[in-house]
Amino acid sequence: MFEKLTSVIESLTTNSISEDRKETLQPLVAFIQSKIDNGQPVNINFICTHNSRRSHLAQIWSQAIAQHFGFHTVTCYSGGTEVTALFPMVVNVLEQSGFEIQKLSEAENPVYAIKYAENAQPIIGFSKRMDNTFNPTSGFAAIMTCSQADEGCPFVPGAEKRIPITFEDPKAFDGTPEQEAKYKERSLQIAAELFYVFSNVNQ
């Protein structure tokens, strides 16, 4: 794993995660543990309305942190209820944390290759519907990362588990002087909570 990214992951603290929030995260811990215990692959699809901010942050951090802890059968995905584009500030704050990101296309919905290690296969990041062919069709946990998707998708086709773990939208700060700081804050909050999740799974 890239040295800077490893340093950021190792500096994450879970002290600020409340007991209520830990209860919210527990079903994801249990899902991953169950799959590991049964020798099955772990597929997690993070879902948000636009698949542009929170769901990508969660997918990318989850994949990197799973690898950090040595869970090599974990594969993370993301999707939305509609297609928009991966928001550039998400790319910016992930690069600041040590991910290496290459823009592969200049379309309205650009495609990015996101790497967390020299020899690891890159995460392919672009906005897509949750049922896109890039994503699994069965046996996965659907993690609802925004309240709108949580309320609007009471049923996710193919999901073995549907788990609401919602985050505040940094979009509220777009175009303000606080934008970059708030995106970084949300990114690191998501990273810390996923660090908590994987640190509570036994090999």
From TrEMBL:
Gene3D superfamilies: 3.40.50.2300. This is Arsenate reductase.
